């Protein structure tokens, strides 16, 4: 049998160096001997690992043109932004602004609103004026709403060429109005509303058809000298979606708005979006993202933010690092992690708290966090920035962690947020 390694902590080169062996001391040798009678391996008592700041990103961003969406830049060296879309009736101005406020609080950067009727178009000016976020009007079927949105002061307009009759004939007018008002556009291609002229191609090469459609529309704008637009080529299948964005990124430098469309309910949609975005972001592709879920749009934003944080493309916020538990656990890790998460749910300072179930790698992992606990033998070793500060009984672990987390947060330097590297 090979060494008994911790299934929850096989990732960090720092802890691999710091901990001489990943063999579980409780099983490879006698427990008392391994724990030195205190519940912890003595060899770990002096190990100090500085929590990682300014971590690297997974890839160098592909160079794209920068466009403006109100106060938010998209593309170029601008941070990758998170978008969502309201689910309220746009004509209901108060309800829409209230949802925009919720999305803002969740970390959204740009918000899109649907404009299916004249009543919705009429509400745009008030929404654009009062929204904390740049507002993008989502237009299908009727080109006149494109002009209404631009004149209403929307930061951007999303047009779906496959769904707007006579759109191609109005390109010059739209480009002129957008230029005069400083409005950014998005050419939003969706598999479900692809230009019918590309149906034959789509049957054989769906990703190619999405790209061809996008480039056709881009060319129409280029021909009138307008290039202030982003492009999306969304598909519900993450594989086709990734292929389409890859191919598009090879042939143009327009900023790309990533999305897996109709991704499904929260669980499935989160996985589809995370895998597809992860594949593309790992190649430096993507300038703004929208997670599409059949769920509260606040959830979409939270997922989008976490995807970017996971790749260090957005400053990490408060984070719980907890092990998955296993047969070696000496405490109820799930309950401990849940209680600590609940107790610190309002934490706004980007500290990392580690909750580890036993002494195999618990101390090593906890030392990489700002604050952590390594549990064992009915006790918890509380570790702050690499130093063991105290050992408390198991029933005091949660309260101690919360108290220490709040103390660390109060002393946290303003400039302490990890820097986003792009
Ligand atoms: S209880 Fe947690 S820390 Fe301990 S070996 Fe299992 S997964 Fe790793």
TrEMBL record:
<dbReference type="GO" id="GO:0141197">
    <property type="term" value="F:4-hydroxy-3-methylbut-2-enyl-diphosphate synthase activity (flavodoxin)"/>
</dbReference>
<dbReference type="GO" id="GO:0019288">
    <property type="term" value="P:isopentenyl diphosphate biosynthetic process, methylerythritol 4-phosphate pathway"/>
</dbReference>
<feature type="binding site">
    <location>
        <position position="323"/>
    </location>
    <ligand>
        <name>[4Fe-4S] cluster</name>
    </ligand>
</feature>
<feature type="binding site">
    <location>
        <position position="326"/>
    </location>
    <ligand>
        <name>[4Fe-4S] cluster</name>
    </ligand>
</feature>
<dbReference type="InterPro" id="IPR045854">
    <property type="entry name" value="NO2/SO3_Rdtase_4Fe4S_sf"/>
</dbReference>
<protein>
    <recommendedName>
        <fullName>4-hydroxy-3-methylbut-2-en-1-yl diphosphate synthase (flavodoxin)</fullName>
        <ecNumber>1.17.7.3</ecNumber>
    </recommendedName>
</protein>
<comment type="similarity">
    <text>Belongs to the IspG family.</text>
</comment>
<feature type="domain" description="IspG C-terminal">
    <location>
        <begin position="319"/>
        <end position="405"/>
    </location>
</feature>
<keyword id="KW-0560">Oxidoreductase</keyword>
<comment type="pathway">
    <text>Isoprenoid biosynthesis; isopentenyl diphosphate biosynthesis via DXP pathway; isopentenyl diphosphate from 1-deoxy-D-xylulose 5-phosphate: step 5/6.</text>
</comment>
<keyword id="KW-0479">Metal-binding</keyword>
<keyword id="KW-0411">Iron-sulfur</keyword>
<dbReference type="InterPro" id="IPR004588">
    <property type="entry name" value="IspG_bac-typ"/>
</dbReference>
<keyword id="KW-0414">Isoprene biosynthesis</keyword>
<dbReference type="InterPro" id="IPR016425">
    <property type="entry name" value="IspG_bac"/>
</dbReference>
<dbReference type="InterPro" id="IPR011005">
    <property type="entry name" value="Dihydropteroate_synth-like_sf"/>
</dbReference>
<dbReference type="GO" id="GO:0046429">
    <property type="term" value="F:4-hydroxy-3-methylbut-2-en-1-yl diphosphate synthase activity (ferredoxin)"/>
</dbReference>
<keyword id="KW-0408">Iron</keyword>
<feature type="domain" description="IspG TIM-barrel">
    <location>
        <begin position="64"/>
        <end position="304"/>
    </location>
</feature>
<feature type="binding site">
    <location>
        <position position="358"/>
    </location>
    <ligand>
        <name>[4Fe-4S] cluster</name>
    </ligand>
</feature>
<dbReference type="GO" id="GO:0005506">
    <property type="term" value="F:iron ion binding"/>
</dbReference>
<dbReference type="InterPro" id="IPR058578">
    <property type="entry name" value="IspG_TIM"/>
</dbReference>
<dbReference type="InterPro" id="IPR058579">
    <property type="entry name" value="IspG_C"/>
</dbReference>
<keyword id="KW-0004">4Fe-4S</keyword>
<dbReference type="GO" id="GO:0016114">
    <property type="term" value="P:terpenoid biosynthetic process"/>
</dbReference>
<dbReference type="GO" id="GO:0051539">
    <property type="term" value="F:4 iron, 4 sulfur cluster binding"/>
</dbReference>
<feature type="binding site">
    <location>
        <position position="365"/>
    </location>
    <ligand>
        <name>[4Fe-4S] cluster</name>
    </ligand>
</feature>
<dbReference type="Pfam" id="PF04551">
    <property type="entry name" value="GcpE"/>
</dbReference>
<dbReference type="Pfam" id="PF26540">
    <property type="entry name" value="GcpE_C"/>
</dbReference>
<comment type="function">
    <text>Converts 2C-methyl-D-erythritol 2,4-cyclodiphosphate (ME-2,4cPP) into 1-hydroxy-2-methyl-2-(E)-butenyl 4-diphosphate.</text>
</comment>
């Amino acid at each position: 049998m090979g060494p008994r390694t911790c299934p929850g902590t096989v990732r960090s080169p720092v802890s691999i160096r710091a901990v001489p062996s990943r063999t579980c001391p409780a099983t490879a040798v006698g427990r008392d001997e391994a724990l030195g009678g205190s519940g912890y391996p003595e060899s770990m008592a002096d190990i100090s690992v500085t929590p990682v700041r300014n971590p690297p990103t997974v890839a160098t961003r592909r160079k794209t043109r920068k466009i403006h969406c109100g106060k938010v830049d998209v593309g170029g060296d601008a941070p990758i932004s998170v978008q969502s879309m309201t689910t309220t009736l746009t004509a209901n101005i108060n309800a829409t602004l209230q949802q925009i406020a919720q999305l803002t609080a969740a970390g959204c950067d740009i918000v899109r609103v649907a404009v299916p009727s004249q009543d919705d178009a009429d509400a745009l000016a008030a929404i654009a004026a009062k929204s904390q976020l740049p507002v993008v009007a989502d237009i299908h079927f009727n080109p006149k709403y494109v002009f209404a949105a631009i004149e209403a002061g929307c930061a951007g307009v999303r047009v779906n060429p496959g769904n707007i009759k006579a759109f191609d004939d109005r390109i010059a007018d739209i480009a002129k109005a957008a230029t005069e008002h400083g409005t950014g556009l998005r050419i939003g291609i969706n598999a479900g509303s692809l230009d019918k002229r590309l149906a034959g191609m789509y049957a054989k090469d769906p990703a190619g058809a999405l790209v061809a459609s996008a480039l056709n529309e881009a060319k129409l704008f280029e021909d009138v000298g307008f290039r202030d637009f982003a492009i999306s080529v969304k598909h519900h299948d993450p594989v086709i979606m990734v292929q389409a964005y890859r191919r598009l990124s090879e042939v143009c430098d327009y900023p790309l708005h990533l999305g897996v469309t109709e991704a499904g309910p929260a669980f499935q949609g989160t996985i589809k979006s995370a895998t597809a975005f992860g594949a593309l972001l790992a190649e430096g592709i993507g300038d703004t993202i929208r997670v599409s879920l059949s769920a509260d749009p606040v959830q979409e934003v939270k997922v989008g933010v976490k995807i970017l944080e996971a790749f260090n493309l957005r400053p990490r916020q408060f984070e719980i690092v907890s092990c998955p538990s296993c047969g070696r656990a000496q405490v109820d890790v799930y309950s401990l992690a849940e209680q600590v998460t609940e107790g610190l749910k309002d934490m706004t300072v980007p500290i990392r708290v580690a909750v580890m179930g036993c002494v195999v790698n618990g101390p090593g992992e906890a030392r990489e966090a700002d604050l952590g606990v390594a549990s064992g033998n009915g006790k918890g070793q509380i570790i702050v920035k690499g130093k063991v500060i105290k050992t408390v009984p198991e029933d005091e672990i949660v309260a101690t962690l919360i108290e220490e987390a709040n103390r660390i947060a109060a002393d946290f330097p303003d400039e302490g947020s990890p820097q986003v590297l792009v």
